Amino acid sequence: MPPIRKCLFPAAGYGTRFLPVTKAMPKEMLPIVNRPLIQYGVEEAARAGIFDMAFVTGRNQRALEDHFGSSRDLERHIAGSKRESLLDDLCRLMRECEFSYTRQLEPRGLGHAILTGETLIGDQAFAVLLADDFCVTEDAGVLAQLSALYDEHRCSVVAIEEVPKAETSSYGIVAGEELAPGLYRVSDMVEKPEPGEAPGNLAVIGRYVLTPDIFDILRSTPPGRNDEIQITDALKTQAREGKVLAWRFQGRRFDCGSVAGFMAANAFVWNN
Ligand code: G1P
Hints:
This protein is 32% helix and 27% strand. With 272 residues, it is of the alpha/beta class. It has a single domain (6-271), classed as Spore Coat Polysaccharide Biosynthesis Protein SpsA, Chain A (Alpha-Beta Complex), CATH 3.90.550.10. The chain has a 5-stranded mixed β-barrel with strand order 8-11-9-10-12. Helix 5 crosses helix 8 (213-219) and helix 5 packs across helix 9 (231-240). The model has no long low-confidence stretch (mean pLDDT 95). 1-O-phosphono-alpha-D-glucopyranose binds next to strand 11. 1-O-phosphono-alpha-D-glucopyranose binds at residues 110, 130, 133, 171-172, 191, 203-206, 230, 232, 257.
C-alpha cells in the first residue's frame, strides 16, 4: 500500500462562534498573525510529504479558493518593493501542491463532509486536517507523526490529547489499550459524551489518517450526536476490528474554533 498522498480539508462549517466575521468568509481564513489557518494546515500537510490538497467547501468559500489561486497582478504590483517577499512562502506552496475542491451543499456533520470528499480522494488512504485545530510541534508536524504510524501499521490513526474531564462534551473521546508510550489500540469511541458517560479523557483532535473503507462505513452510518453523521461513529466501526490507532501527539494544540484559543494562538505565534 502506498504512503499517504492526499489530504482532505473539511471547510464547510458556518463558524458561528466567530460571527459576524465569518458571515461572508470561512473560519479557515481567520489569520494567525498574517497567515490564514488554512495555510498553516496546507503547510503541515506538505511537510508530511502530502502535496495533493482536497477541500470540501460550503457557502462563502471563495476567499479560500482565491487564497490558493493565481495572483500575478498582485505579485507584479509588489515586485521590487520591500513587501516583495511576503508572498514567497505561499507561492512556493502553490507551486508544490495541487488543489481541488468539491462542495458540501449543507453541513450534515464531519462524517458527511468527509464522505463528500470521496470524489476527490478515491480508493486510497488519506489524511484529514481540521484547520481550526492549530498545532505547533518541534518536528515536521502532527500529520507527519500520523503518516509515519500509518506507514508502519497500515490502519486508521487519529491524533489525541488529554483534556480535562469537564471538557469531554466538546470532543470525540477514545478508550483503548496502550501498546507503546502514547500509542493506543482504540476499543471504544464516543462523540462528545458528557463527563459522566465518557470512556476516559483522551480527546480526538483534528488530525486523522483514514483507510478508504471508511467511505462505505460512512454511507451506512446513521446520524449520531446532534443528528449529524459523525466520523467518530464510523471510526468506532473500524475500531471493533482493531483497525484504529490513537497517537498522543507530541506538540501543542490551540483550539482556534474558540475565540479564546484563537487569541492564544495569535499571541503564541507573535511572541515566538
Ligand atoms: C470534530 C469531531 C470531534 C473532534 C473535534 C476535534 O468536532 O467531531 O470528534 O474531537 O472535531 O477538533 P467539532 O470540533 O468539529 O465539533
